[in-house]
Amino acid sequence: MVMETRIRRRRRASWADLPEDMIGDILRRLPSFADRSRLRAACRAWRAACRRQPLPPAPWLTVPGHCVSLADGAIHCVAPLPEDARNARCRGSFGDWLAVVPLASAPFLLNPFSGARIPLPPWTEKQYICKIVMSSAPDSSCLVAAMVDCTVDCGGENRRTIAACRPGEGHNGAWWPVSLAFDLQDIAFYEGRLHALPSCDGLMVFDDGELDLLRREPWRLHEEQLPPPPAAKSYDGKLHFSSRRYLVECNGRLLTVIRYVQFQETVMIEVHALEPDDSWARVKGIVGRALFVGDACSGSFPVSDDMIGENQVCFVDDEMAISDELDNRNLFADAYGPRGGGVYRSVLVNVERDLGRRPLRTVEAYVMSDRCVNVYRPGESTSAARTGRWKLTRAHDFPRSIPFGQRLGGTKDREDSVVI
After folding, report:
1. Pairing of strands 88-94, 97-102
2. How far apart are the C-alpha atoms of 154 and 169, rounded to whole Å?
3. Which residues contact 6 (CB under 8 A, 6 or more apart)?
4. Model-level pTM greater than 0.85?
5. Alpha-carbon torsion 181, 183, 185, 187, what sign?
6. 161: closest CA among 179, 175, 136, 173?
7. In angstroms, rounded to a whole number, what is the distance separating the alpha carbons of residues 144 and 99?
8. How many Cβ atoms sit within 10 Å of the Cβ of residue 417?
9. Would you tell me how many other CB atoms lie within 10 Å of the CB of residue 204?
10. Counting Cβ atoms within 10 Å, is residue 343 exposed (0-12), middle (13-18) or buried (19+)?
């Protein structure tokens, strides 16, 4: 009788009764988003347990809900989003929190997995927000800074300004100006302080107290600067090209990444690190981490046995094309129509439609150790993009068939290059 009872109990047990801590152990061994999605699909109990487990860090893209999985070199749409987020742009991230900028309403912070939302103050200026950074995960002490495009107001010159707010104040708060318009390239928080990267002048540094002081005295002169990082080139004697510059924290160091672009295609990457003596040294290797640079997220991410490994700088050129298209439409709207009516409203409708249909086709990674680029794309089947079965399809040298001179594509390491 006792034996029969034990047999019945064993038969009643199912995989759905697996303890949550054991599911957590399994998830920690599954860095791939594709494998995690299959585990979530097994049953309701596993799906509920997965929601309570932290996800591996991943860089987010401008199209909301889309991120790059370093484990399998694939782009994933990780969660269904509310309607107002699907028709918006992701302009920044911190962990699982996205900074969402809708096309016709106030920006907000969104956790796409839990559905939690934190409102930011309404944005009432005609200039548009092109990037948002956070000093920490959203809480009462978090500070949010935005990089705002002022190109139209500055006669077509590439000028941007900085604004800040406290997310805890929500709709009752307000953005306040931190700077006048200047040739701003990027902003980032590093060691609790806001750093702003101009095109050629010194790196500007704002601590938390100074940002609050600028709220009361908006035209106060900012004085603290660090020496400028190496300047980006625009001409190598044969060809012209543009550049994008990013600030990234990695292994406790502040880096600048220069991304050389031609016809919306990345053709070269340079990385420099800020030294303790405030000088800049070229980086030739990164231990245990990979960098990602993009319009919604720039940062460093831990890697081990992932498909995208250490010493690599990742980017998605398709994202750059999408972001440029949206920015150009914003400029067109600001120049020819007021917000909320006329030309601007018709532009919004087109952007919403295009944003959902534009494909994100490839992930590329610049390998710093041998100066080549790995390209990851879906397999031939249409289900490959959905399941994350992306493959390394080819690798080529940088610069990619463009005759740069030795200043960009030199083969010898300088004596001041470092590994971080």
Report:
1. antiparallel
2. 31
3. none
4. no
5. negative
6. 179
7. 10
8. 15
9. 21
10. middle
In this structure, what are the phi and psi dihedrals at residue 39, rounded to the nearest 5 degrees?
A: -65, -40
Query: Which CB contacts under 8 angstroms, 24+ apart, belong to 335-342?
Result: 335/152, 338/126, 339/104, 339/126, 340/104
Block mean pLDDT (10 aa), the chain, length 420: 56 72 79 74 80 78 84 80 84 91 86 87 86 88 90 66 83 82 91 88 84 71 72 64 89 92 83 91 91 89 83 86 64 43 33 50 85 80 51 71 38 61
Sequential DSSP letters for 21-86? HHHHHHHHT---HHHHHHHHTS-HHHHHHHHTSPPPP--B-SSTTEEEETTTTEEEE-S---HHHH
Neighbours of 142 (CB within 10 A): 18
Contacts of 212 (CB under 8 A, 6+ apart): none
| CB contact at 8 A, 27 and 21 | no
What does the chain come to in residues? 420
What Å distances lie between residue 310 and 34, 248, 252, 274, 290, CA to CA? 21, 15, 16, 20, 5
- Do 391 and 381 contact (CB within 8 A), yes or no? no
Rounded Cα distance between 324 and 356, Å, is: 15
Tokens representing 41 are 């699909």
Widest CA span of the chain, in angstroms?
91
| Contact in structure between 31 and 71 (CB atoms under 8 Å) | yes
First-residue to last-residue Cα distance in the chain: 67
What are the tokens at 198?
A: 């101009």
Sheet holding 128-134, edge to edge: 128-134, 144-149, 160-165, 176-177
Backbone angles phi, psi at 28, to 5 degrees: -65, -20
Cα distance between residue 246 and residue 133, in whole Å: 12
Alpha helices per DSSP H over 252-316: none
Cα radius of gyration rounded to whole Å, the chain: 23
Residues 6+ apart with CB under 8 A from 107: 91, 99, 100, 101, 120, 123, 129, 132
